[in-house]
Design a protein that fits this description.
Number of strands of chain B: 16
Strand content of chain B: 15-25%
Shape of chain A: globular
CATH class of the largest domain in chain A: Alpha Beta
CATH class of the largest domain in chain B: Alpha Beta
Number of domains of chain A: 2
Largest interface: A-B, 41 and 48 residues
CATH superfamily of the largest domain in chain A: Metal-dependent hydrolases
CATH topology of the largest domain in chain A: TIM Barrel
Number of helices of chain A: 11
Number of domains of chain B: 2
Structural class of chain B: alpha/beta
Number of helices of chain B: 11
Largest sheet of chain B: 8 strands, mixed
Helix content of chain A: 25-40%
Structural class of chain A: alpha/beta
Largest sheet of chain A: 8 strands, mixed
CATH architecture of the largest domain in chain A: Alpha-Beta Barrel
Oligomer: heterodimer
Order of helices and strands of chain B: HEEEEEEHEEEHHHEHEHEHEHHHEEE
CATH architecture of the largest domain in chain B: Alpha-Beta Barrel
Order of helices and strands of chain A: HEEEEEEEHEEEEHHEHEHEHEHHHEEEH
Chain lengths: 416, 455
């Protein structure tokens, strides 16, 4: 009993120390709140117990010893969105056993969900989050099926249970035809409609069923509520997606959307957001003939909600360069930041946790060395759920092993 | 004859072959587009030689650079005031697959990887180049004036690469950089052993890769010897001697051994690059450039000492095992030792459009690691060092008198995500203008697409 008391005391002390250490006051930052307050110059932000407690001028240093960061006018943003990718799902794509993002069953399985495969100890998490990214949408890729599967938003704090928001269903329509999808995009819509019918009314034994029982209930759930991301590029396919979503009452999001600018008004009217790769400007296939660098700018001007996605998994850190290029081609700078913060948070219903700097909200913050969208800027301080994360990764350790010149002993002895 | 003596004699012996490496076949028909003498004034100039000049001028006439800095301009010259703008040499991408994996990337356009045999030194990338690839126009908007188009990396010896001027033409010959040496694309590591291992044939291992290259070099040496023996007999006046049969594969390899063809070696891992350097010593040739070299930072000293360039990405990594140790300081660390030759390359139809941004990222990471890299130094990674890698530094890659007037005017500091090429000159001809749609080329493929939907 005595021993237990000592242990408890020790634990209490440790936790207390941690909480105190993470009492953070950021002074004199240019704060991109991504709320109605806009961007505030020379403003302080106080973080304690994981949350943003105060935003204002000349905040008094709290009584408990706080980490004080003098930002000296540097930009402070909410943590950035890393896009749809396979962080924690795929370590080395070409090494099959380290990659769980795709399902190669030759069946329609909307119930495929990558979440159980998530490994927060992947080297990619620190590599990505030290670049200013605090949340990511785990994507799925069931090969050859219209239904790519399900994923979910995850906070990149390294926790095993750091999922936020509801699950998301991914549907892939367009040029990616295969035997399973009937090798025709008309066939894709035919099968999609059949799947929806099966979810509404289970097929009789005489019918040849497309979905399993679990698949039907999964799809039924998304028709009731939840978000469905359609990976689609061609303008006509986007319109068909809007009709399909409207008919079945789905909350749709367009991902890809290379030709979305051609149907910007319809997207705005339907209030369907677009997650796009602003660098897409080549007719890489016949669905991309209209790809252009001002896609984002045109959509924004039409009132479509935008998020940036498409940098993939290993180089997810390229997202902000992609947003910077969109700004270079006409997207307002604030909209470029929104496409990496408040917009993806709002699209997926996690705006109470990510995407803006607001009082009593979890503190996910980044101090940048310069313009956050500029290729010569880097993230200097990253705070996830109120904790300053160590700015270290497997890559910084490799760098620090090879930075010293002419070591006497082999570099295997240098363990930064 | 001892090998060393034979190798010493190689250049002489091979040059006696009829046609030797045949790099002059399928000849360039490129000729510069019309130009007027042009003076660019008040620019910030990065010369590509490591020098920065502020508020400086550059004069070009008859396709060549007349002066850089200050000088007398002739009457009637076209003057461009570049106040607030930056001038660099035209950018050079040493690793592109434009034309051989053209957009749209349909199967019919997949012409970059002759994966039917691990050693296809007999194929020439130029014979696959589709000059209507829309990618050329996008690269031009990014300031690319010269590019090397290479075969893919599925094979150990993938074939010859070709260096092109980035101008639209009906044929690749009309783009071919005059007198540029050919390259030989070779590949280390995972790709060849995967492609052929899956077919249960050599190579299925890295040691298999080495055995297969070495067997080919041995064949090439015999080929050189056979031709030399034939030429000797002809020279001594013997009649009726039958020449050895021409072999396209060995002709290319002989071209490497005699120094006419530059080796461009796809290689990721540090240990493999070191093994390849030993193989080059074994057979008496030189590796020109290691491409991709995700682990080049581990052996930067050795690469500099060997005079080998490294053409690298700023941050692309991890997609396969041999790319797992990628770091963002790779280019900056490769650049550190004296005599280094660091290059930013793309290997991508997207990346080639913004090599300047890739260089900016690499420079930034170097500076954060304390390596103090200036823009005038970093610009070498995509200009002079790239030109050196391709064997065309005498003609382009720097802004120096008498060189080809391959010049980019940027709307600001090119090391920025917001920088754009305002005007691009190739051999003094204005071939791209950001503000003038009539000076923005469109490939046949794109013309008329989506008619009626233009905004």
């Amino acid at each position: 009993m005595k021993l237990l008391c000592i242990l408890l005391l020790a634990l209490t002390f440790t936790f207390g120390a941690t909480a105190q250490a993470q009492n953070i006051l950021i002074r004199a930052a240019t704060v991109h709140t991504m709320t109605k307050s806009g961007t505030l110059e020379d403003t302080d932000v106080l973080v304690s117990a994981g949350k943003i407690r105060k935003i204002g001028k000349n905040i008094k240093t709290p009584p408990h010893a706080a980490s004080i960061i003098d930002a000296k006018g540097k930009q402070l943003t909410p943590g950035f969105f890393a896009g749809i990718n396979s962080l924690g799902i795929s370590e080395v794509p070409a090494v099959g056993e380290s990659n769980d993002s795709s399902l190669s069953l030759a069946e329609m399985r909307p119930e495929f969900d990558v979440v159980p495969a998530y490994n927060p100890n992947s080297s990619l998490l620190p590599i990505t989050r030290i670049e200013g990214y605090t949340f990511s949408l785990l994507g799925a890729d069931a090969k050859g099926s219209i239904f790519s599967g399900q994923g979910r938003m995850v906070v990149l704090d390294g926790g095993y249970e750091s999922f936020i928001g509801s699950s998301v269903l991914f549907i892939n329509v367009g040029r990616d035809t295969s035997v399973l999808t009937g090798s025709s995009r008309a066939g894709q819509w035919m099968l999609l409609n059949q799947a929806v019918q099966e979810a509404e009314v289970p097929p009789s034994a005489a019918d040849s069923a497309l979905l399993t029982r679990t698949g039907r209930s999964t799809l039924a759930r998304y028709m009731d509520s939840g978000t469905v991301v359609f990976d689609v590029d061609r303008a006509s396919d986007i319109l068909e997606t809007l009709r399909f979503a409207d008919r079945h009452g789905l909350k749709a999001v367009i991902s890809g959307g290379a030709e979305a600018w051609m149907v910007a008004e319809q997207l705005a009217a339907a209030k369907v957001p677009v997650m796009l790769d602003p660098l897409s400007n080549l007719p890489g296939n016949f669905d991309l003939l209209g790809a252009r660098l001002d896609n984002a700018a045109i959509l924004e001007a039409a009132g479509v909600t935008l998020a940036v996605s498409g940098a993939g998994t290993h180089n997810a850190r390229k997202q902000r360069q992609m947003a910077g290029n969109a700004v270079s081609y006409g997207l307002p700078h604030a909209a470029g930041i929104a496409a990496l913060t408040s917009n993806p948070a709002r699209i997926f219903g996690i705006e109470d946790q990510q995407g803006s700097i607001r009082r009593n909200k979890p503190a996910n913050l980044v101090v940048w060395s310069g313009d956050p969208l500029e290729v010569t800027s880097v993230a200097e301080i990253v705070i996830i759920n109120g904790e300053m994360i160590p700015m270290e990764s497997r890559q910084t350790r490799l760098r620090d092993r090879y930075l010293p010149e002419n070591p006497v002993m082999p570099r295997a002895y240098i363990k930064p | 004859m001892p090998l060393k003596v034979l190798l010493f004699l190689l250049p002489a012996l091979v040059s006696m072959q009829p046609g030797n490496t045949r790099a002059d076949t399928y000849p360039s028909t490129y000729s510069p587009l019309p130009s007027t003498p042009t003076l660019i004034t008040h620019a910030t100039i990065l010369t590509g030689t490591g020098v920065r000049m502020d508020d400086a001028s550059l004069l070009m006439a008859d396709g060549r650079i007349v002066f850089v800095g200050k000088g007398e301009a002739p009457e009637g010259v076209t003057v461009i005031d570049a106040k607030g703008r930056w001038l660099t040499p035209g950018l050079i991408d040493v690793h592109s697959h434009l034309g051989v994996y053209a957009s749209p990337r349909v199967k019919a356009h997949s012409d970059g990887n002759e994966m039917t045999d691990p050693t296809t030194a007999n194929v020439w990338a130029e014979h696959s180049v589709w000059p209507q690839d829309p990618g050329f126009s996008r690269a031009l908007a990014g300031g690319i004036t010269t590019l090397q188009v290479l075969p893919g990396s599925g094979n150990l010896m993938g074939g010859r690469g070709v260096t092109l001027k980035n101008v639209y033409s009906l044929s690749y010959q009309g783009m071919k950089f005059p007198n540029a040496p050919h390259g030989l694309k070779m590949a280390c590591g995972e790709n060849p052993k995967r492609v052929y291992g899956e077919r249960k044939r050599l190579p299925s291992t890295r040691m298999g890769n080495m055995a297969a290259y070495r067997a080919q070099w041995i064949n090439a040496l015999k080929y050189i010897f056979d031709w030399a023996a034939y030429n000797d007999k002809v020279a001594s006046g013997k009649d009726g001697i039958k020449p050895p049969k021409r072999d396209l594969k060995l002709e290319t390899l002989a071209g490497v051994l005699n120094g006419e063809i530059i080796v461009h070696m796809h290689c990721y891992r540090a240990d493999e690059m070191l093994t390849i350097l030993d193989m080059a010593d074994e057979f008496g040739y030189k590796v020109g450039t290691f491409h991709h070299g995700v682990e080049a930072y581990k052996i930067a000293d050795k690469l500099a000492e060997s005079g080998v360039c490294g053409a690298l990405w700023a941050d692309w990594w991890g997609f396969k095992m041999e790319a797992y140790d990628g770091i963002q300081e790779n280019i900056a660390l490769l650049d550190r030792p004296p005599g280094s030759c660091a290059i930013v390359h793309s290997d991508s139809s997207e990346g080639i459009q913004r090599l300047n941004q890739e260089a900016a990222k690499a420079m930034t990471r170097g500076n954060r690691a304390g390596l103090a890299i200036t823009p005038e130094r970093a610009i070498r990674w995509l200009t002079s060092n790239a030109a050196k890698s391709l064997g065309i530094l005498d003609e382009t890659g720097t802004l120096e008198e008498t060189k080809m007037a391959d010049v980019v005017i940027w709307n600001g500091n090119p090391f920025s995500v917001y920088a754009k090429a305002d005007q691009v000159f190739i051999d003094g001809a204005l071939v791209y203008d950001l503000d003038d749609p009539t000076l923005q080329p469109v490939s046949d493929f794109e013309l008329g697409q989506l008619t009626g939907t233009e905004q």
